[in-house]
């Protein structure tokens, strides 16, 4: 009986040990959460249409890709995302994943069928996400609109620039819910020569539409730069709430069979690696495909598990209920194939100005100053700022503190990109209670309402030394008589006592002291002066040899070596009415 009981205890202990072991019965690490990518070049159970352009067409597409303006990389979005974007951050506050799928209105089962118009599907979905980001309008936009009204057989392939050309001619997008706007060319092919589409353009209703005033293409820089820069640029565009039109080429049927099997057989957690084919020879069975890049995840400690998230236009499979797949993030962005006049991977996005208020300048929401505090009292003109924070629906780009309740303009001087830590009142400020106002602005030049705080200044008096009287006899300076006597009175007209100072004397061809004035030998020491007190005295000064022979003004300057901190440092000098003539 004791042996049986002991055996049961041992069995229970072993079962608990295996259950609690890391990686057994638990995920253990995130690398176990995904299916490993498998290369399988066997004949696929199902194939899908791809674009098979000739070399001339590829060269044309690549030329437009390279000549397109570069996508704007907004420094604000390296560490944050657009407020409409779903994202996660790590424990340092850096964005670790972004997902724009919530901004895309689509049905995963929608498929291009046998039509090679993936370029139109990917471009239309970039537009749909942009419409939602900018205007919070969720619409499943019509792909059939392009197929029927493009003017060429869309099933023969195209590029994002063709999407731009089409919509700049129509200046509207329409939902698939419009009459005949749902996709009906799934059985159409490039070889269908009789008609350009199974649906005539005139039969598609445009009654419900989303006007746009302009659309342009922007290429995201991913080649000719470091891999880390390429990745950062793609993330930045996604963080802005903009989807990406991603095109890729594969060089031969073996590579395409691998991709078909990846799509058909693997799950949405598997990460496709496009690097397997870099350097291979481009052949007659090579082709291209375009999809929509909608997110990323680099939260795993292992960079091998970092990926881009993409929406395909091949419908769904048993393992892909959302019609999506993942692509390796740390890929070779400079990948090429011999005999192909293009890079294997291409990344572009759209800049759209929606006709009823869309576009980059549609932000009309001003920031809010959420906190502003300063000490309750100070004995100095420079006051520390304890707190100054602000929030905005996009981002705060400037801060300002003023002593006026008048709202500053966004272009006014004095804005700083970070919250100031102190404020200095002007030298003419007197003691008493003062009010300061904190402001914030954003990139769209919206300026916040102010948040105010008050402080009581108890300022010690500040001296102000001036020459209140100056006299000398008119004198002609010769080689044998180079000295003359000058008398001045120094007065402290400030509000505080002045420490001892020194008065110095100059000759000047103008009535003010300038950089060209001649310093005379001879100074007068002025004792400390209380408020309103004066000090008078005479000094014999000597003119240096070698100066220009002309007539000069004599000038006396109080505290000329600036040892006394004064309320006004620009009123220390006075000019005599008697002239000094130099003739040697």
UniProtKB/TrEMBL annotation:
PROSITE patterns hit by this protein: THIOL_PROTEASE_CYS (PS00139), THIOL_PROTEASE_HIS (PS00639)
Q: Name one GO biological process term.
A: proteolysis
Q: Where is the Peptidase C1A papain C-terminal domain?
A: 108-341
InterPro entries, A to Z: CARDB (IPR011635), Ig-like_fold (IPR013783), Papain-like_cys_pep_sf (IPR038765), Pept_cys_AS (IPR000169), Pept_his_AS (IPR025660), Peptidase_C1A (IPR013128), Peptidase_C1A_C (IPR000668)
Q: What keywords appear on the UniProt entry?
A: Cell projection, Cilium, Flagellum
Which Pfam families has this protein been placed in? Answer: CARDB, Peptidase_C1
Q: Name one GO molecular function term.
A: cysteine-type peptidase activity
CARDB domain sequence ranges? 462-575
Q: Which family is it part of?
A: Belongs to the peptidase C1 family.
Q: What is this protein called?
A: Flagellar hook-length control protein flik
Q: Which species is this record about?
A: hydrocarbon metagenome
């Amino acid at each position: 009986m004791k042996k049986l009981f002991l055996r049961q205890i041992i069995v229970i202990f072993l079962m608990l040990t295996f259950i609690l072991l890391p990686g057994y019965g638990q995920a253990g690490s995130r690398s176990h959460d995904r299916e490993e990518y498998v290369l399988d070049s066997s004949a696929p159970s199902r194939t899908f249409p791809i674009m098979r352009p000739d070399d001339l067409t590829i060269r044309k597409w690549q030329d437009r890709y390279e000549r397109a303006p570069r996508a704007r990389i907004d420094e604000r979005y390296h560490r944050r995302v657009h407020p409409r974007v779903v994202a996660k951050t790590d424990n340092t506050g850096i964005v670790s994943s972004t997902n724009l799928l919530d901004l895309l209105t689509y049905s995963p089962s929608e498929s291009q069928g046998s039509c090679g118009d993936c370029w139109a599907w990917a471009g239309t979905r970039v537009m749909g996400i942009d419409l939602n980001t900018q205007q919070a309008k969720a619409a499943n936009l019509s792909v059939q609109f392009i197929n029927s009204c493009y003017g060429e057989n869309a099933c023969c392939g195209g590029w994002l620039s063709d999407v731009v050309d089409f919509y700049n001619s129509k200046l509207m997008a329409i939902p698939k819910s419009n009459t005949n706007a749902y996709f009906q060319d799934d059985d159409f092919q490039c070889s269908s020569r009789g008609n350009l589409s199974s649906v005539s353009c005139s039969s598609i209703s445009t009654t419900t539409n989303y006007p746009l005033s302009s659309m342009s293409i922007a290429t995201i820089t991913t080649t000719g730069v470091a891999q880390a820069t390429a990745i950062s640029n793609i993330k930045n565009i996604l963080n802005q709430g903009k989807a990406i039109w991603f095109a890729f080429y594969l060089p031969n049927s073996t590579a395409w069979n691998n991709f078909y099997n990846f799509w058909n057989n693997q799950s949405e957690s598997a990460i496709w690696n496009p690097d397997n084919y870099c350097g291979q020879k481009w052949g007659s069975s090579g082709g291209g495909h375009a999809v929509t890049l909608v997110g990323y995840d680099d939260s795993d400690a292992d960079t091998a598990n970092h990926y881009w998230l993409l929406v395909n236009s091949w419908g769904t499979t048993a393992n892909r209920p959302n019609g999506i797949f993942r692509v390796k993030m740390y890929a070779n962005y400079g990948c090429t194939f011999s005999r192909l006049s293009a890079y294997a991977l291409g990344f572009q996005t759209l800049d759209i100005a929606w006709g009823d208020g869309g576009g980059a300048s549609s932000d009309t929401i001003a920031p809010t100053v959420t906190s502003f505090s300063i000490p309750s009292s100070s004995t100095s003109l420079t006051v520390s700022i304890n707190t100054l924070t602000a929030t905005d629906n996009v981002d705060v780009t400037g801060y300002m503190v003023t002593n006026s309740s008048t709202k500053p303009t966004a272009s006014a001087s004095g804005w700083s990109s970070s919250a100031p830590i102190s404020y200095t009142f002007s030298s003419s400020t007197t003691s008493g209670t003062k009010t300061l106002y904190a402001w914030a602005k954003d990139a769209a030049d919206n300026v916040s309402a102010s948040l105010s705080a008050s402080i009581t200044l108890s300022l010690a008096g500040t001296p102000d030394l001036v020459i209140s009287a100056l006299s000398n006899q008119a004198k002609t300076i010769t080689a044998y008589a180079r000295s003359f006597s000058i008398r001045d009175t120094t007065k402290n007209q400030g509000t505080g006592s002045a420490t001892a100072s020194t008065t110095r004397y100059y000759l000047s061809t103008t009535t003010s002291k300038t950089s060209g004035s001649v310093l005379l030998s001879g100074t007068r020491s002025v004792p400390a002066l209380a408020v309103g007190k004066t000090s008078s005295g005479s000094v014999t000064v000597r003119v240096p040899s070698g100066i220009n022979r002309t007539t000069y003004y004599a000038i006396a300057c109080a505290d000329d070596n600036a040892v006394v901190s004064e309320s006004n440092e620009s009123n220390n000098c006075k000019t005599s009415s008697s002239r000094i003539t130099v003739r040697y």
